[in-house]
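Session log. Operator J.P. requested a structure for one protein chain; no other inputs attached. Running the standard single-chain path with token output.
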Amino acid sequence: MRLAKLALTTALAALAGVATLGAARAADLVTIRLSYVVPISDLPSLLLEKKELAQHLDKTYRLEVTRFAGTPPMVTALASGSVDVADLAFTTLPIAIQNAGIGDLRVIADGFQDGVAGHYSNEYMVLKDGPIKKVADVKGRVVATNAAGSGVDVAMRAMLHKAGLEDKRDYTEIEAPFPTMRAMLSEKKVEMVPAVLPFSLDPALLKVANPLFNAKDAVGISQFTMWTARAGFIAKNRAAMVDFMEDTLRILRWYLDPANQKEVMAICARLTKQPAERFTWAYTAKDYYRDPNLMPNLEALQHNVDLTRDLGFIKGSLKVADFSDLSLVQEAAKRVK
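Structure written below.
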């Protein structure tokens, strides 16, 4: 009996030790809080759908993914430390650095690029039977945007500026979430809306609306979104961040592989509760351009930031190369062949 009790005690102690070790290891994991805006189009919304490809997930890092209505609110989250990796637009990068004082913010990876030849560019839609037939017709009208100062917003302002139109003086702008844009336009609450993937392919929208112009018409090629993180967070958690970028690169290449298109469509359908056949474009040449090595186009980004300055969202010049750290994706790419 004593031997049995001793064996039971030893076994329980061993189990307790394993549990303690497991808890300690869990406590050592780096939590990476990642943000995005548009489902499907923004890769963060899809990462956990292929977590079996993430070799380091829940081993060296945990991942928490949060959706925001637009990129400007992410700046507040970065400043408060409630987001670690933010999928910012080209407009909110300089706003975060100059206006919000986040001087240690770094561009670490490509999000997606708009206007690259052979790929999609965001559209700005008006009613087919409405009064707007050319950009100058926007004068005196009400237009929608997802968030003032977002990439979508600044591209729209840039195009209207080319036509001599300025916000408040020549047109009225109101904010609304992307999923509501079609209803707002069809109900004539606004007379122009931004249409981004996947919303721009909504059959109900295409039935009543036409594109007036696209973002490429307004700003050319743009590094429309990019992943950013603060230098302090990168330095403190560098090993885990490289592991995270390695997993992200492996997952991105899976989505870009034409052999996986049917499964990609099924994932998109499940997340959006829409028919799979609506997603034949996803992660193909009909979609935005995504660099297969997660490398951003810093030359285009510099042009985009200069435009943001010219439209008055920031006060001075900003050299984007000084606020970039591409070493994480470069190291990750060496691991993924």
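Operator note: Strands lie at 30-36, 61-67, 85-89, 105-114, 123-127, 142-145, 172-175, 193-195, 209-214, 222-230.
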